Automatic annotation (TrEMBL):
Statement: the UniProt record of this protein carries the keyword Transferase: no
Pathway(s): Carbohydrate degradation; 2-deoxy-D-ribose 1-phosphate degradation; D-glyceraldehyde 3-phosphate and acetaldehyde from 2-deoxy-alpha-D-ribose 1-phosphate: step 2/2
Protein name according to UniProt: Deoxyribose-phosphate aldolase
Keywords attached to this entry: Lyase, Schiff base
UniProt-recorded Gene Ontology molecular function terms: deoxyribose-phosphate aldolase activity
Amino acid sequence: MTTTVPAPRASLDLADAVRDDGSLRRFLRGLPGVDQVGLERRSATLATRSIKKESKLQALDMAISMIDLTTLEGSDTPGKVRSLCVQARRPDPDHPDVPPVAAVCVYPDLAGTAVDALRGSDVAVAAVATAFPAGRSSRAVKLADTALAVDAGASEIDMVIDRGAWLTGRYGQVYDEIVAVKAACGSAHLKVILETGELAGYDDVRRASWLALLAGADVIKTSTGKISPAATLPVVQVMLHAVRDWHRATGELRGVKAAGGIRTSKDAIRHLVAVNEVAGPQWLTPDLFRFGASSLLTDLLRQRRTQALGHYENTDRIGTA
């Protein structure tokens, strides 16, 4: 199947790609087009894959450990965030062997609350920034938004690209903004949200993935969760190809976050199969693959109890916060 981007021959090619706006445009436009039919056929095949019963518990625990447990509502309060942090530390109080989730993701003004509530745990604090979710503001405001989260102790920043700039071909502007936000992050990891549901197609997803990687993204992320479609299996495959080929070209490991629309254990396992087969088993870690899907956790816990008890339990009996 011809859905891969041939990796640039040497790191010098990548440096040349961002020498100026014209070079960046030529590099991105020169990426081979995505074979849409082949990609979607492969996705359909991956969706039929199953795993052995004895491996299912391991897959469920892996998926739980990759979740960014998220609350991004105007009605969010410190109490709600603290409750979410309790759940993040111990997703199923009746089963202490369930692993904690990867991170709690909140708005910047509540990052300090999450940091305090998660102190002493391995759960990271992520904060959305850059005028999430629309990304419609000045760069100064976006950088101030980022600084607010970092100063509060967030160790991960989820930024949104300027889709207006992207869709009108102002690639250099998008690149420069990611570079600036990356610098503002300091030691915090940067996840760059492409909002793939607003991009023109798979070719645009590929180009946006490479642009974000060139600009310094530690993780490329599908969606804010506010736009549909979001994390479809074909789109996630395109992004997995990008980080795999980036690694082949540079030796650097970058991650992917599938956010929006993944609600069932079956969907999560399909994505884990894709990670393994498209990028490789090295990416089957919370450091390199995440789910931005809080509603997914309940189904994962229910399926995990089913594996242990041999029968389904009602969702409201699962002791989540």
